[in-house]
Write a structure and sequence with these properties.
This protein is α+β, with helices and mostly antiparallel strands. The protein has a single domain, classed as START domain (Alpha-D-Glucose-1,6-Bisphosphate, Chain A, domain 4, 2-Layer Sandwich), CATH 3.30.530.20. The protein is built from three helices and seven strands, in the order βααββββββα.
Length: 145
């Protein structure tokens, strides 16, 4: 069976450099409750949503082009079977200039339709990317949780 990782593209008005900077401002678009650093290679950070948490390590950071976060630990309490389902998955932002501005291609590698959290996580990422990140880049204000 083909594994289709969650993927979404968004267009933003900023430059690739601005998009990269805003992605690194995780508190501004995704999670207000955050510990650690979110900007450079090998930075480690944890986002918290009540009893849910996810810890990431930045494994690639190419300003204006690409940033990759590896999930090193998590606890997703609403799942029935595997509350650490995201462990070992990667969150990838590929940034490219286009005629309309900048395209951010977001992929959560390992988040596939076979995953227990896929549907809820897909809805969550859609919201965070569109209302959070896209808004933060375009107008300077995101909607973090």
């Amino acid at each position: 069976m083909k594994q289709e990782h969650y993927h979404k593209s968004i267009l933003v008005n900023g430059t690739p450099a601005e998009a990269f900077e805003r992605i690194c401002e995780v508190k501004g678009w995704w999670a207000k409750n955050l510990e650690g650093n979110t900007e450079q290679l090998n930075d480690v950070f944890t986002v918290h949503f009540s009893t849910t948490f996810v810890t990431f390590r930045i494994t690639e950071a190419i300003p204006g082009k690409r940033i990759v976060w590896l999930v090193t630990d998590c606890y997703l309490p609403w799942l029935k079977n595997n509350k650490t389902e995201w462990n070992g998955t990667r969150v990838i932002f590929d940034i490219n200039p286009v005629a309309e501005g900048t395209r951010i291609d977001f992929t959560h590698e390992g988040l596939t339709p076979q995953a227990e959290c896929y549907e809820n996580c897909r809805v969550g990422w859609d919201c965070h990317l569109e209302k959070g990140l896209q808004s933060l880049v375009n107008i300077g204000v995101g909607e973090p949780q």
